[in-house]
Amino acid sequence: MSFPMNGSNIQVHSYKHNGHIHRIWEETIVLKGTSQEVIGGNDRILVKESDGRQWRTREPAICYFTAHHWFNCIGMIRNDGIYYYCNLGTPFTYDEEALKYIDYDLDIKVFPDMTYKLLDEDEYALHSQRMNYPKEVDAILRRSVDELVQWISQRKGPFEPGFIEYWYERFLQHR
């Protein structure tokens, strides 16, 4: 698999199971790009929704994508601490157009005190039925929710103390 070069500016595209585009993040600076993981940073970037709406992110963020896990994490740096928004979805792929993954609706929001909340279970149930998510995908996603919760509890990967701050300092050097 190809991967984006450190310092390059890429787009991130999320799709739905049916292949339709879901959301496009216009620009993310690659801070670490390997075939195994991509760590990127962005701040107040344009996001385009599939329905044509557009909005800007409100704060700096560090994005963590992995080629082996069915989730990705966005650490948002706010005045009162770091909040995480974790998307349950396929491992990333990368081509010259963008970093891409399939978003499977379920999300986990993590608060600065490392408490968390599972979100969008209703949306997952609806889309699972409408788009015929295979049983294998459902099983992988259920295991991935458990794995992500373990990472949060164990302060692993992007939840490790200092991880977001370290990569945010690297991001500031690329701006």
From TrEMBL:
Q: Which domain of life is it from?
A: Bacteria
Q: Does the keyword Hydrolase apply?
A: yes
Cofactor field = Mg(2+)
| EC annotation from Swiss-Prot or TrEMBL | 3.6.1.15, 3.6.1.6
Which GO molecular-function terms appear in the entry? Answer: magnesium ion binding; nucleoside diphosphate phosphatase activity; ribonucleoside triphosphate phosphatase activity
Q: List the active-site residues.
A: R23
The residues listed in the UniProt record as binding Mg(2+) 1, with positions renumbered to this chain, are N87, D103, D107
The family database entries (PANTHER family) matched by this protein are listed as:
PTHR39159, UPF0374 PROTEIN YGAC (PTHR39159:SF1)
What family, per the record?
Answer: Belongs to the Ntdp family.
Role this protein plays: Has nucleoside phosphatase activity towards nucleoside triphosphates and nucleoside diphosphates.
Alphabetized HAMAP family for the sequence: Ntdp
Which protein, by its recorded name, is this?
Answer: Nucleoside triphosphate/diphosphate phosphatase
What is the species listed in this Swiss-Prot or TrEMBL entry?
Alteribacter lacisalsi
Species classification: Bacteria, Bacillati, Bacillota, Bacilli, Bacillales
